[in-house]
Each structure stands twice: as structure tokens, then as C-alpha cells.
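Board notes (copied after class):
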Amino acid sequence: MTDHAEIIESWVSDFCGSSAFVDGAFLEGGSPVREYAPQVLVAFLTAACAQREAAPADVNEADLKPALLEGVGRLAIPASVRREVPALCAAFLSEMESQGRLSGGRTLGLYVRALRDPYLDSAAGKTAPLQAAGAKLGRNDPCPCGSGRKYKKCCLGLLDT
């Protein structure tokens, strides 16, 4: 993985010095994301590569979702920067395709942009609500205790006491 780290650092450094980043229409004027971009992009691509121990040029959609939601989502960055992270990562992937380093980078970038809302929820610490494993038990269903009686005539009354 050490050689992947060098490649990732090189890709991120090249991107942060490119016109795609400097002139980035995806960034709001004076955005603080510029300060955090190297940290975010290195964490993003490192986490993507770690999913399958793949080379940076071999990452795919299945690698990017956990990289964004878990890897980058756990970074301690300001909320103003978080809003722009998916667009930053998408521009990075697109630029890597333009440079011939990553095939399908534009498509992967669109996928990452589509993960904006789940990413923002993950980064804010929101979790999906828990749901019961089975179907809801109705009053007229057979009682789960195995008595053969209806639930309303058997164990339902026990819950009230």
C-alpha cells in the first residue's frame, strides 16, 4: 500500500495545482474547501483503494461509496467545507480521467455527486432509524407464544400489566 500512498499524494498534488481546481466552478468564491482539499482527497482515495486493496487507477463505484460516507465522513472538517466535498471529489475524479490516470472518472464523479445527501448525513453523525426485523404483530394474529390462541386473547393483555 506504500506505493499507492505515493501515487495518491502525486495525483492529489497535481490536481490541487491544476486549473480544474484553481478555477473550479464547483467551489463557491473564497471557499474554505481549498485549505482542506488535499486532506480530503487523500483520505477519499486512500479509503477507496483500501476497500479491495486496489490501485488508485482501479477504483470503482463500490469502492467510492464507503470511502466517501465512512472514510471522508469521519474527518473533522467544518460544515461549510462538508457541503462541497462531494463536488470536490467528483471534480478530482473527472480530472484524473482527463489526465488519463483513471478510466471512467467522469462517471464515477457523477456517482459521488449523487451521494451528497447520504454523505452530509454521515458526516453530521446521523444514522438510519432502526426498524424491527419482522412484520408488525396484529391483534388478530396467532400469538407468538405458541398457544394457538389469538394474540389479543393471549399475551396482549399481559403487556398492559
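Comment from the instructor: The chain has a mean pLDDT of 85. DSSP finds nine helices and no strands in the chain.
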